[in-house]
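Need a sequence for this fold. Nothing fancy.
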């Protein structure tokens, strides 16, 4: 489906937070995805914006909570490795986040995952009138 669609500048992915965008799967379902920084190459990872334990988004519009390279679930506090997506603690222990394939080219993050088409930045409901991803801002 996707053919290396531009998502964002790599610099748009904040340290200690996330950049959120919305993609569409083969069945027309809109899926929120977060970009987070990772110390391993190429420096950014993309994960489906939902905890594996319950229906809980990591980034609800103000950025996911990231500490020491781990994404923290706001509901029960399980922490997921930002690079591997794996969780070894709390309610979500033994699970891993579904990843989304990306590449970085000239400091631009590209969606290269055949399962998804890029729709827009921000969350599912931000497509029509939202100002775009505000995941790195605080209100
Ligand atoms: S919903 Fe994330 S740990 Fe329970």
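Here you go.
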């Amino acid at each position: 489906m996707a053919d290396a669609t531009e998502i964002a500048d790599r610099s748009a992915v904040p340290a200690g937070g996330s950049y959120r965008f919305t993609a569409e799967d083969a069945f027309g379902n809109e899926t929120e995805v977060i970009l987070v920084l990772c110390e391993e190459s190429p420096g950014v990872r993309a994960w489906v914006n939902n905890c594996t334990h319950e229906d809980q988004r990591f980034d609800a519009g103000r950025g996911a909570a990231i500490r020491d390279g781990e994404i923290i679930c706001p509901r029960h506090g399980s922490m997921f490795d930002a690079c591997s997506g794996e969780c070894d603690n709390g309610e979500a222990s033994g699970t891993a986040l579904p990843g989304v394939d990306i590449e970085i080219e000239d400091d631009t993050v590209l969606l290269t995952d055949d399962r998804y088409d890029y729709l827009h930045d921000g969350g599912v409901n931000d497509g029509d009138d939202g100002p775009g991803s505000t995941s790195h801002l605080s209100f």
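For context: The beta strands are 5-9, 19-24, 30-37, 44-48, 65-67, 70-72, 79-81, 102-105, 108-111, 117-121.
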